[in-house]
């Protein structure tokens, strides 16, 4: 990403805010005014030529007639780690569907923590270098890049996966492969499932924003993105799609009060 990044708010999405909070949590360890100064630099558009690569973010910060080169560093996942991560995410239908639609589920890291992984920096993982003379890490220039990155992540959450070593398309291809059965995720036996816990919500259902729209007769988006399921023939697949369409129509009828 090239050019200047100028913003008044850093982190409009939950993942952008979480990245920003990870930086601000350092305020208890690293003294001011570095973080406020970094935030001011970010707001003034001092951060330029920001590039996200596997394992690092590169940028320049301009100020007082000087340009400082900054590199933020985050360890990438190994191939084995990514296989584990994909199986964990594919095993959660809602995670797979959200990712395939370009969204990052808010509890995605809860799922990854179960296999000892995290997309976001963990304690001691995130480092930085800067061409300035500051002896404190992060310096104000690195802090500015952190803030701007929070806004950049708002637009593209898959920059988080790139940082960890996997771009969007290879990740989604792997998810589709697991969901289609070419790599089958581990699932609990049906007789070990607790039926009373299957529909337990993690939060307040009344807080969920609902934006219904009239069914248009097409294949439900989640089913289309996930693709055909291993072990189900085409006729059964069509029956599943038809059942989904019928459920959508019925739900709309009930919503209208008919």
From TrEMBL:
Name of the protein: SWIM-type domain-containing protein
UniProtKB keywords: Metal-binding, Zinc, Zinc-finger
GO molecular function, one term: zinc ion binding
InterPro entries hit by this protein: Znf_SWIM
Keyword Aminoacyl-tRNA synthetase: no
PANTHER family for this protein: SLR1429 PROTEIN
Limits of the SWIM-type domain: 115-150
Taxonomic path: Bacteria, Bacillati, Actinomycetota, Actinomycetes, Pseudonocardiales
């Amino acid at each position: 990403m090239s050019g200047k990044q100028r913003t008044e708010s850093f982190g409009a999405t939950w993942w952008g805010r979480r990245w920003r909070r990870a930086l601000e949590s350092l305020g208890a360890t690293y003294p001011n005014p570095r973080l406020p100064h970094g935030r001011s630099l970010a707001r003034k558009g001092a951060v330029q030529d920001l590039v996200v690569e596997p394992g690092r973010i590169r940028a320049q910060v301009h100020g007082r007639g000087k340009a400082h080169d900054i590199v933020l560093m985050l360890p990438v996942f190994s191939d084995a780690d990514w296989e584990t991560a994909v199986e964990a995410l594919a095993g959660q239908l809602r995670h797979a569907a959200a990712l395939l639609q370009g969204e990052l589920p808010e509890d995605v890291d809860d799922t990854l923590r179960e296999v000892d992984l995290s997309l976001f920096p963990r304690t001691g993982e995130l480092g930085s270098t800067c061409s300035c003379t500051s002896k404190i890490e992060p310096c104000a220039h690195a802090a500015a890049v952190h803030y701007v990155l929070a806004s950049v992540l708002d637009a593209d959450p898959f920059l988080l996966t790139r940082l960890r070593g996997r771009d969007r398309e290879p990740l989604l291809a792997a998810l589709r492969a697991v969901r289609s059965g070419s790599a089958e995720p581990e699932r609990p036996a049906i007789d070990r499932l607790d039926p009373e816990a299957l529909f337990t919500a993690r939060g307040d259902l009344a807080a969920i924003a609902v934006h219904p729209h009239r069914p248009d007769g097409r294949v439900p988006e989640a089913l289309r993105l996930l693709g055909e399921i291993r072990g189900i023939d085409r006729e059964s697949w069509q029956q599943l799609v038809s059942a989904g369409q019928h459920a959508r129509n019925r739900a709309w009828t009930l919503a209208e009060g008919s």
